[in-house]
Protein 1
Amino acid sequence: MIIERLKQSGLKGRGGAGFPTGLKWEAVKNAKADKKYIICNASEGEPGVAKDFFILKKYPEEVIKGIKIALKEIDNSSAYIFLNPKYFPKLEKKLKKAIGILPIVLFKKPHGYICGEESTLLNIIEGKSKLPRLKPPFPTEKGLWDRPTLINNVETFYQVFQIAQGKYQADRFYTLGGKVKKKGVFRLPENLAIKQILEQTGNWPNFDFFVQAGGGMSGEILTSAELDKPAGGAGSVIIYKRSSDPMKVLRQWAKFFMNESCGQCVPCREGTFRLNEALKKKNFNQEMVNDLLFVLAETSLCPLGRGAAVPFIGYLNKIYARKN
Ligand code: SF4
């Protein structure tokens, strides 16, 4: 019943990948196993995304009720909330109160961006190394301790509860950051164009700017003329002023991804390191950087490496090219 309603609502995961929620629930429900798991991913490690913290702080009971619906729908299941370590001390009491006697474990995520990737968090809960797993198999078939596992984001569980209550309004939570006048989390329709998001929140810049939209620091780069599309991904919108130093932002991204790479696969381990080295030079070899980005995007093992290439490719083609 709830799965049909999730499908009809068109709800897609709000963690970034945007997989249809109803289909994911159905896959876990129909999988044959003696035990199943539900995980609420509250790791929120991307710089520029803060909506899950906002939701957990403001609506902890609704999120827990969303998880409770999953516990009821999926036989022989128990749940985890995989919580960002910075959020843990601020939310522990509130969440434990909302959990009460439900079979939900509050699990403190270790530090590190990669720890929030869904297969890495499975390894972490199992006490293994903080490394992503090869997919397939997907967690819906072989997740925690090889059992079918439903992994959804905080906002997704919040919206599941709204759907169950007949109160879903096809809206979402956007994190606005960077050079905006009013930073913060805003609740607006899910398909609203970025241009309207900026206008309706009083954040349309009065300077020459570009936007990084969707997945925090891995988000897509858009010029101010390309904002007739929704933010997508995890719903972040970061404003950058077109700087007189176009290398500054590239170096900032390169350092972040190099430091956060887990080192398991060569394209990302070597690629992010070499990218960081190459971009230290003022007149960097753009052909070599393009090759590194191609390999990073096409052959990295997990979304961190593949996503790392996205902002560089957009910036080099749309912003850097115009300045140089
Ligand atoms: S893409 Fe990067 S973060 Fe992901 S497995 Fe490879 S080295 Fe690790």
Protein 2
Amino acid sequence: MSVMTAARPDRLLDRLPPVRGRYTENADLSRITWFRVGGPAEVAFRPADREDLLAFLAAKPDGVPVTVIGVGSNLLVRDGGVPGVVVRLGRDFAQMRRDGEEIEVGAACLDLNVAKAAAAGGLAGLEFLCGVPGSIGGALRMNAGAYGRELKDALVWAEAADAEGALRRLTSDEMGLGYRHSTVPTDWIFLGCRLRGHTDAPEAIRARMAEIQGSREASQPIRTRTGGSTFKNPPGRKAWQLIAAAGCRGLTLGGAQVSEQHCNFLINTGGATAAELEALGEEVRRRVKAHSGIELEWEIKRIGVAPDEPPAGEAAHG
Ligand SMILES: Cc1cc2nc3c(=O)[nH]c(=O)nc-3n(C[C@H](O)[C@H](O)[C@H](O)COP(=O)(O)OP(=O)(O)OC[C@H]3O[C@@H](n4cnc5c(N)ncnc54)[C@H](O)[C@@H]3O)c2cc1C
């Protein structure tokens, strides 16, 4: 059973508090995610501003699952959709404010736009963000990194809303940031952060960004329907090498494929379902384990339910 709401007497929308932002029932998430797959959000919520979000969190009924998503570049939404409320932060969360050698950025800012703004203002040290196609919210959750730097290296503090709608400010240390990981509770929603850089000439910064982008073009299938690196690199090892050694390069399942170009990337070649992509990932894990004894850990976040799983409130979130 999917999370379609029409047949259910207890319509979630009727139980949600009034907001100034927008609720959308059965919102198609496949249009948002990079993979272009997945079922609908039972209700999508786009808060008008931070007060609207905090008030919603404080007033929402107990037991309603809330999931925040960024721009879906590290996300596999299962075909049965996401029960509960899916929060997407909009324009009001995409502000940037420069302050000396630091910059405050909203969680909905694209990493690329932050890198560009920093470069234009002669603020170096954030170039790596141009290699990560997500939002700042996703970068905080994942401790996004590229080309030898990660968000943690530049982070001064981050601000989040906790599950009850209280505002929290966390230092980098308090966030437990590690390799594609943070220990901040998974139901907290990042609102923005302050990043530190250092002064340099805009041309020099832009040249480093061009280098990063050129190298990405050459090594990653960035123009395909993908979710970025599928698995984390195990300590001291490269996931792609283990996958290649296990003979998985180019492996397909329905419309899902292990990228020929970078075999730690899964691709939707056209008509893939989320189930096919997830099953292919699990097959890769099985083969790598059989070949090398190493268990790969998913880096991609999988959310929602399969079409035959129980609906809202009864299903576990990935
Ligand atoms: C082609 C390609 C290349 C990539 N290269 C890199 C790379 O070099 N380095 C790298 O680190 N990543 C890379 N990624 C992965 C991805 O871009 C990053 O993980 C990014 O940080 C995810 O941001 P997002 O906005 O897309 O988040 P989503 O994919 O939408 O969500 C990812 C996770 O972040 C959480 N999240 C999103 N917003 C918030 C918020 N405001 N508050 C709390 N949690 C939130 C979600 O709940 C989810 O758990 C790549 C992806 C692609 C498709």
